[in-house]
Amino acid sequence: ITNEWLQIFDYKRLIITDWLQANDHIRLITNKRLQTNDNKKMKTNKIFFKNSKVLPVDSFFKNVLYDKKFGYYASQMPFGKGGDFITSPKISSIFSEIIAIWIVSSWETFGKPKNFNIVELGPGDGSLANILLRSFKKFPEFNSIKKIFLFEESRLLKKIQKRKINNKDAKWIS
């Protein structure tokens, strides 16, 4: 996106000043699976800009990522060999285990409070949370007081996470 198309103000909103007139579809250039000539899977700009040329950033991302029919995270598995990227917890459990130890260490530094909440935003396929919960079992005092919450917008990813995590200690919030 060039400066001709966008003016950024208030760091929360985008004003679309000149959307690609030659192309009536939004394309995610980085997503090779959406780079097709027919673009029937993507919403047209007219839908996004029905009543205004102003589109808040959060609305834009909610549309392209979580739309039930066209959204990136709603219609495909983005992780792993068949996906577009891989995350650190999928490469090695060591990353997640180090995060778990850091969380327990932080809890101790805070004076071992009786309530300790952990919130993961966009937990992907659930690998990090799954390894965290497994690692916390090695610290029984912490494990007994911690609460873990997962915030996920995508129904597809939420199903995948629930299958992978399968732990009553994990709670999904929205």
Record keyword descriptors for this entry.
single chain; 174 residues; alpha/beta; three-stranded antiparallel sheet; three-stranded parallel sheet; 8 helices; 6 strands; elongated
Brief rundown of the structure:
With 174 residues, the protein is an alpha/beta fold. It has 8 helices and 6 strands.
What's the average pLDDT?
Answer: 75
Shape: elongated
Instruction: Output the strand order for the largest sheet.
Output: 1-2-3
Output the radius of gyration.
20 Å
Largest sheet: 3 strands, antiparallel
Beta-strand residue percentage? 15-25%
Helix and strand sequence = EEHEHHHHEHHEHE
Query: Distance between termini?
Result: 31 Å
